Amino acid sequence: MPATVVVGTQWGDEGKGKFTDLVAKEMEMVVRYQGGHNAGHTLVVDGETFALQLVPSGILYDHITPVIGNGVVVDPRVLLKEMDTLEAKGVDCSSLKVSGNAHLIMPYHQELDALHERHLGDGKLGTTKRGIGPAYADKAMRVGLRVQDLQDPKIFRKKLDAVLGYTNQVLTKVFNRLPVDADEIAAEYLDVCAPRVIPHIADAISLVHNALETGQGVLLEGAQATFLDLDHGTYPFVTSSNPVAGGACTGAGVGPRDIDRIIGIAKAYVTRVGSGPFPTELTDETGDYLVDVGHEYGTNTGRRRRPGWFDAVMMRQAVRVNSLSEVALTKLDVLDGLDSLQVCVAYDINGERHHQLPYHQSELHQATPIYEELPGWGTDISKITNPEALPKNAADYIAFLENQIGVPIRLVGVGPGREQFLDRAA
Questions:
Q1: Where are the beta strands (DSSP E) in 268-316?
Q2: Tell me: the pLDDT tens digits for 194-209?
Q3: Bond from prior residue into 256 cis (ω within 30 degrees of 0)
Q4: Residue-wise pLDDT tens digits, 15-34
């Protein structure tokens, strides 16, 4: 049975967790394929909120095997804390598997992350300072430590000493900081973390392929989103991995022919966190309304998100890059109180109309959105689960977006709760 991918299509925070959770209940395995604890999924189940950072959404189902794939970077301290929090809420984490090939985030990665960001000054990227970028950099430089190294103290220490030979030079001579103590790191990671992490370490590639070969449903879950992708996002204001659907192949160890359904998650408006271009950004009262009603603050960081109107130009690019088969639209209910809505259908760049996203960053920074206005519906839709019961203007808004992006919008979220959605294909 081929796998399904769930991917964010904007700048993250689209509400992937809810729809990943919804699709996950039909699966036997959920695999997180990239990113680290710099992105959170928020799920509301029976009125209780679960904020997940590293653990895949499928953890909330007893029948699912949740897997942290090789493409993820893992801070074992954060992972164990998250598992403890879930266990305290009655969630069994014993079935969680972690790829031995996933890379470890080390304490010096977090220190370097903060130092690099401070060094950039006004040109800072808006990183979460969780060590994600430096961990991926060490992976690319082939000096990273992997989860499997926790199983072999001699190898762990040998690799740690090797990388600190360079890293401590950077810390002391470039940033005038104290060197990192290898003994302290080894004591924390090998003596405290390893005994609890080791029982969860697995050959994730074999797990995933055995599931696929035996007809089980496998969901590949990404973090962040398309326009935070290292290759396809608004570089350099991006993450350090590949959240796009193609990243699911490398990050979970599957081939393109193993995937037949790619669900793009899009918010009914757009937000982004941190720096970077944002053609439809709203800095007025409407923007404040979207932030307040949509509770647009970071799950992990608490940072206020930047709001804007839905951008169909971006979405067309997301459809292309991810080869989306369908879209799940979230937070439609946030628009309930607006009299009129704007949708960006094209960009004006130097007097020319562009229907596709420009590849050159200078053009994107100069892009002026061309809007089409649609009427609001002015009523609470949060209790609607039948598409036919939607107000006409709400149904027309969905249909307009669907026509603009060229793929069907199947699932529509009308509230934060697990059951607050409607299925237009039902």
A1: 270-272, 306-308, 310-311
A2: 999 999 999 999 999 9
A3: no
A4: 887 888 888 888 999 999 99
**C-alpha torsion 15→381→324→290, nearest 10:** -50
Distance between CA atoms of 112 and 129, rounded to whole angstroms? 8
User: How far apart (Å, rounded) are the C-alpha atoms in residues 102 and 98?
Assistant: 8
2, two tokens: 């081929």
Per-residue b/e over 118-143, b at no fewer than 16 CB within 10 Å?
eeeeeeeeebbbbbbbbbbbbbeeee
List residues with catalytic annotation. Answer: 13, 41
Tokens of 265: 């998650």
Token pair of 381, please? Answer: 């839709």
pTM as predicted: 0.92
- The arithmetic mean of pLDDT across residues 389-403, rounded, is 97
What is the crossing angle of helices 153-169 and 107-120, to 10°? Answer: 20
Which residues, in sequence order, are CB contacts of 182 under 8 Å at separation 6+?
157, 160, 161, 164
Q: Angle at which helices 245-252 and 312-322 pack, to 10 degrees? A: 40
Identify whether the C-beta of residue 60 lies closer than 8 Å to the C-beta of residue 50: yes
**Contact of 406 with 316, CB cutoff 8 Å:** yes
H/E element holding 162? helix 153-169
The span from the CA of 308 to the CA of 41, in Å, is 21
pLDDT value of position 189: 98
pLDDT at 128: 63
Percent of the chain topping pLDDT 70: 94
